[in-house]
Design brief:
This protein is of the alpha/beta class and 119 residues long. Helices cover 17% and strands 40% of the residues.
Length: 119
């Protein structure tokens, strides 16, 4: 798999309001900028088979979490996958446009952005 991800590499994304992870979901964190600073939010994400079966991801063993990390000045987001011991990771990039497509496809509005409401 290339080191660039698209919205199609994820089947779902939903806010982690309560610890109700469903089978096949990974815990995820989105660290992003908003008008008043920087925020960290918790989600559940379901990877597409192409991502879950990627050789580098498989080499990690069980994935304990995923971090979407916004970069400054419109640079691609960094997407880091960590294995259970949190020692090794696999890193990908995702353009802001693809990240926004992922959010829109799952009706997710980030906290701090216009239109956000708590579930």
């Amino acid at each position: 798999m290339p080191n660039v991800l698209t919205a199609a590499d994820f089947l779902s994304l939903r806010l982690q309001y309560k610890n109700t992870r469903e089978e096949g979901e990974w815990t995820a964190v989105i660290e992003h900028d908003f008008a008043d600073g920087r925020m960290v939010d918790h989600y559940f994400v379901r990877p597409a088979p192409s991502l879950a079966e990627d050789e580098a991801v498989q080499a990690l063993g069980p994935v304990s979490g995923l971090l979407f990390l916004q970069q400054p000045d419109g640079a691609p987001w960094q997407v880091l996958l960590h294995e259970t011991a949190m020692i090794r990771e696999v890193s990908f990039e995702m353009s802001d446009g693809e990240f926004r497509r992922l959010l829109a496809a799952n009706d997710v509005i980030l906290p701090g952005e216009p239109g956000f409401r708590m579930p």
